[in-house]
Amino acid sequence: MKPLRVLLADDQTLVREAFAMLVESAPDMRVVGQAGTGREAVAVARGERPDLVVMDIRMPDLDGIEATRLIAADEELAGVRVLVLTTYDTDENIVEALRAGAAGFLVKDTRPAELLDAIRTVAAGEALLSPGPTARLIAQFLRGPSGPPTAGGPECLSERECEVLALVARGLTNTGIAEELGLSPLTAKTHVSRIMGKLGARDRAQLVIVAYESGLVTPGPSAP
Protein backbone atom coordinates (compact mmCIF):
# COMPACT_ATOMS: atom_id res chain seq x y z
CA MET A 1 0.00 0.00 0.00
CA LYS A 2 1.12 3.52 -0.74
CA PRO A 3 2.00 5.57 2.36
CA LEU A 4 -0.43 8.27 3.44
CA ARG A 5 0.70 11.65 2.15
CA VAL A 6 0.45 14.24 4.94
CA LEU A 7 0.67 18.04 4.87
CA LEU A 8 1.44 19.78 8.18
CA ALA A 9 0.17 23.33 8.76
CA ASP A 10 1.17 25.18 11.94
CA ASP A 11 2.67 28.63 12.46
CA GLN A 12 5.14 27.32 15.04
CA THR A 13 8.22 25.88 13.35
CA LEU A 14 9.20 23.70 16.29
CA VAL A 15 5.71 22.20 16.45
CA ARG A 16 5.74 21.45 12.74
CA GLU A 17 9.17 19.85 12.91
CA ALA A 18 8.12 17.71 15.88
CA PHE A 19 5.02 16.55 14.02
CA ALA A 20 7.11 15.92 10.91
CA MET A 21 9.50 13.68 12.83
CA LEU A 22 6.57 11.79 14.33
CA VAL A 23 4.79 11.28 11.01
CA GLU A 24 7.98 10.22 9.24
CA SER A 25 8.61 7.65 11.97
CA ALA A 26 5.47 5.79 10.88
CA PRO A 27 6.12 3.34 8.03
CA ASP A 28 2.72 4.00 6.47
CA MET A 29 3.05 7.80 6.27
CA ARG A 30 5.24 10.49 4.82
CA VAL A 31 5.27 14.27 5.00
CA VAL A 32 4.81 15.87 1.58
CA GLY A 33 4.82 19.48 2.71
CA GLN A 34 4.73 21.99 5.53
CA ALA A 35 3.03 25.37 5.86
CA GLY A 36 3.32 28.20 8.37
CA THR A 37 0.15 30.08 7.37
CA GLY A 38 -3.30 29.14 6.19
CA ARG A 39 -2.73 30.64 2.77
CA GLU A 40 0.45 28.66 2.39
CA ALA A 41 -1.39 25.51 3.47
CA VAL A 42 -3.93 25.97 0.68
CA ALA A 43 -1.19 26.59 -1.88
CA VAL A 44 0.81 23.54 -0.82
CA ALA A 45 -2.34 21.40 -0.76
CA ARG A 46 -3.09 22.42 -4.34
CA GLY A 47 0.45 21.63 -5.38
CA GLU A 48 0.91 18.33 -3.55
CA ARG A 49 -2.67 17.06 -3.21
CA PRO A 50 -1.99 15.18 0.04
CA ASP A 51 -4.31 12.58 1.48
CA LEU A 52 -4.65 14.57 4.68
CA VAL A 53 -3.84 18.00 6.11
CA VAL A 54 -3.07 18.38 9.80
CA MET A 55 -4.29 21.96 10.30
CA ASP A 56 -3.77 24.32 13.23
CA ILE A 57 -6.72 26.66 13.80
CA ARG A 58 -4.82 29.76 14.83
CA MET A 59 -2.43 30.89 12.11
CA PRO A 60 -1.51 34.26 10.58
CA ASP A 61 -2.44 35.55 7.11
CA LEU A 62 -5.32 33.08 6.79
CA ASP A 63 -6.51 31.04 9.76
CA GLY A 64 -7.04 27.31 9.70
CA ILE A 65 -10.82 27.60 9.40
CA GLU A 66 -10.70 29.65 6.21
CA ALA A 67 -7.91 27.47 4.85
CA THR A 68 -10.05 24.40 5.53
CA ARG A 69 -13.03 26.02 3.80
CA LEU A 70 -10.96 26.78 0.68
CA ILE A 71 -9.59 23.24 0.55
CA ALA A 72 -13.02 21.65 1.04
CA ALA A 73 -14.56 23.86 -1.66
CA ASP A 74 -11.87 23.14 -4.25
CA GLU A 75 -13.11 20.42 -6.60
CA GLU A 76 -9.54 19.58 -7.58
CA LEU A 77 -8.84 18.75 -3.94
CA ALA A 78 -11.75 16.35 -3.56
CA GLY A 79 -10.65 13.56 -1.26
CA VAL A 80 -8.17 15.72 0.67
CA ARG A 81 -9.26 15.50 4.30
CA VAL A 82 -8.48 17.96 7.06
CA LEU A 83 -7.75 17.09 10.69
CA VAL A 84 -7.85 20.25 12.80
CA LEU A 85 -5.61 20.66 15.83
CA THR A 86 -6.52 23.03 18.65
CA THR A 87 -4.80 23.98 21.88
CA TYR A 88 -7.99 23.87 23.94
CA ASP A 89 -10.88 21.44 23.64
CA THR A 90 -13.29 24.30 24.46
CA ASP A 91 -12.30 26.36 21.42
CA GLU A 92 -15.56 27.50 19.79
CA ASN A 93 -13.75 27.68 16.46
CA ILE A 94 -13.85 23.89 16.33
CA VAL A 95 -17.52 24.01 15.33
CA GLU A 96 -16.76 26.51 12.58
CA ALA A 97 -13.93 24.28 11.39
CA LEU A 98 -16.33 21.34 11.14
CA ARG A 99 -18.80 23.51 9.27
CA ALA A 100 -16.00 24.55 6.94
CA GLY A 101 -15.35 20.94 6.00
CA ALA A 102 -12.87 19.56 8.54
CA ALA A 103 -13.17 15.80 9.05
CA GLY A 104 -12.53 16.16 12.77
CA PHE A 105 -10.44 17.73 15.48
CA LEU A 106 -7.88 16.76 18.05
CA VAL A 107 -6.30 18.64 20.94
CA LYS A 108 -2.58 19.36 20.69
CA ASP A 109 -1.68 17.58 23.91
CA THR A 110 -2.74 14.27 22.38
CA ARG A 111 -0.15 11.53 22.78
CA PRO A 112 2.03 10.81 19.72
CA ALA A 113 0.53 7.38 19.07
CA GLU A 114 -2.98 8.84 19.23
CA LEU A 115 -2.09 11.49 16.65
CA LEU A 116 -0.86 8.84 14.25
CA ASP A 117 -4.01 6.80 14.82
CA ALA A 118 -6.08 9.93 14.22
CA ILE A 119 -4.36 10.52 10.88
CA ARG A 120 -5.09 6.94 9.83
CA THR A 121 -8.71 7.16 11.01
CA VAL A 122 -9.49 10.41 9.19
CA ALA A 123 -7.65 9.33 6.04
CA ALA A 124 -9.77 6.15 6.02
CA GLY A 125 -12.95 8.20 5.86
CA GLU A 126 -14.00 8.20 9.50
CA ALA A 127 -14.77 11.36 11.44
CA LEU A 128 -12.57 11.83 14.46
CA LEU A 129 -13.66 14.07 17.29
CA SER A 130 -11.53 14.51 20.37
CA PRO A 131 -13.14 12.30 23.05
CA GLY A 132 -14.79 13.67 26.16
CA PRO A 133 -16.00 17.17 25.34
CA THR A 134 -17.28 16.43 21.82
CA ALA A 135 -21.05 16.37 22.32
CA ARG A 136 -21.08 19.09 24.98
CA LEU A 137 -18.88 21.34 22.87
CA ILE A 138 -20.82 21.00 19.63
CA ALA A 139 -24.17 21.31 21.35
CA GLN A 140 -23.04 24.43 23.19
CA PHE A 141 -22.30 26.34 20.01
CA LEU A 142 -25.25 25.04 18.00
CA ARG A 143 -27.98 25.97 20.48
CA GLY A 144 -28.69 29.28 18.81
CA PRO A 145 -29.34 30.02 15.12
CA SER A 146 -26.12 30.42 13.17
CA GLY A 147 -27.20 30.18 9.57
CA PRO A 148 -28.83 27.42 7.53
CA PRO A 149 -28.03 23.78 8.28
CA THR A 150 -25.01 22.38 6.49
CA ALA A 151 -27.06 19.59 4.94
CA GLY A 152 -30.63 18.29 4.87
CA GLY A 153 -32.61 17.29 7.96
CA PRO A 154 -33.27 13.78 9.26
CA GLU A 155 -36.95 13.73 8.27
CA CYS A 156 -36.14 11.46 5.33
CA LEU A 157 -34.40 8.88 7.50
CA SER A 158 -35.83 5.64 8.80
CA GLU A 159 -36.08 4.98 12.53
CA ARG A 160 -32.95 2.81 12.39
CA GLU A 161 -31.05 5.43 10.43
CA CYS A 162 -31.98 8.05 13.04
CA GLU A 163 -30.57 5.73 15.72
CA VAL A 164 -27.36 5.36 13.75
CA LEU A 165 -27.10 9.12 13.16
CA ALA A 166 -27.48 9.77 16.88
CA LEU A 167 -24.62 7.39 17.61
CA VAL A 168 -22.46 9.03 14.95
CA ALA A 169 -23.13 12.34 16.73
CA ARG A 170 -21.81 10.78 19.93
CA GLY A 171 -18.55 10.09 18.15
CA LEU A 172 -18.94 6.32 17.79
CA THR A 173 -17.09 4.52 15.01
CA ASN A 174 -18.75 1.94 12.78
CA THR A 175 -17.55 -0.77 15.14
CA GLY A 176 -18.97 1.10 18.14
CA ILE A 177 -22.29 1.60 16.39
CA ALA A 178 -22.41 -2.09 15.49
CA GLU A 179 -21.80 -3.11 19.10
CA GLU A 180 -24.39 -0.64 20.41
CA LEU A 181 -27.14 -1.79 18.03
CA GLY A 182 -26.22 -5.46 17.66
CA LEU A 183 -25.27 -5.12 14.00
CA SER A 184 -22.30 -6.22 11.95
CA PRO A 185 -19.68 -3.51 11.27
CA LEU A 186 -20.45 -3.81 7.56
CA THR A 187 -24.15 -3.17 8.16
CA ALA A 188 -23.31 -0.17 10.34
CA LYS A 189 -21.04 1.18 7.61
CA THR A 190 -23.81 0.72 5.04
CA HIS A 191 -26.27 2.62 7.22
CA VAL A 192 -23.82 5.50 7.63
CA SER A 193 -23.17 5.67 3.89
CA ARG A 194 -26.90 5.74 3.14
CA ILE A 195 -27.47 8.46 5.71
CA MET A 196 -24.72 10.57 4.17
CA GLY A 197 -26.31 10.11 0.75
CA LYS A 198 -29.80 11.03 1.94
CA LEU A 199 -28.63 14.11 3.83
CA GLY A 200 -26.11 15.26 1.25
CA ALA A 201 -23.35 15.26 3.87
CA ARG A 202 -19.71 15.29 2.85
CA ASP A 203 -18.51 13.13 5.71
CA ARG A 204 -19.25 11.84 9.19
CA ALA A 205 -18.12 15.05 10.86
CA GLN A 206 -20.83 16.90 8.97
CA LEU A 207 -23.36 14.33 10.16
CA VAL A 208 -22.53 15.36 13.73
CA ILE A 209 -23.37 18.97 12.91
CA VAL A 210 -26.62 17.94 11.18
CA ALA A 211 -27.68 15.84 14.17
CA TYR A 212 -27.33 18.77 16.55
CA GLU A 213 -28.70 21.43 14.19
CA SER A 214 -31.83 19.36 13.58
CA GLY A 215 -32.41 18.70 17.28
CA LEU A 216 -32.13 14.93 16.82
CA VAL A 217 -29.40 15.00 19.47
CA THR A 218 -29.46 17.45 22.37
CA PRO A 219 -26.99 18.03 25.21
CA GLY A 220 -27.62 15.91 28.25
CA PRO A 221 -25.97 13.74 30.90
CA SER A 222 -25.51 10.89 28.43
CA ALA A 223 -23.31 12.98 26.15
CA PRO A 224 -19.70 11.76 26.01
UniProtKB/TrEMBL annotation:
Residues 150-215 form the HTH luxR-type domain. The keyword Transport does not apply. Residues 5-123 form the Response regulatory domain. The modification 4-aspartylphosphate is found at residue 56. Keywords: DNA-binding, Phosphoprotein, Transcription, Transcription regulation. It holds the Pfam family GerE. The keyword Phosphoprotein applies. GO terms for molecular function: DNA binding. GO terms for biological process: phosphorelay signal transduction system; regulation of DNA-templated transcription. PANTHER family: TRANSCRIPTIONAL REGULATORY PROTEIN NARL-RELATED, TWO-COMPONENT RESPONSE REGULATOR. This is Response regulator transcription factor.
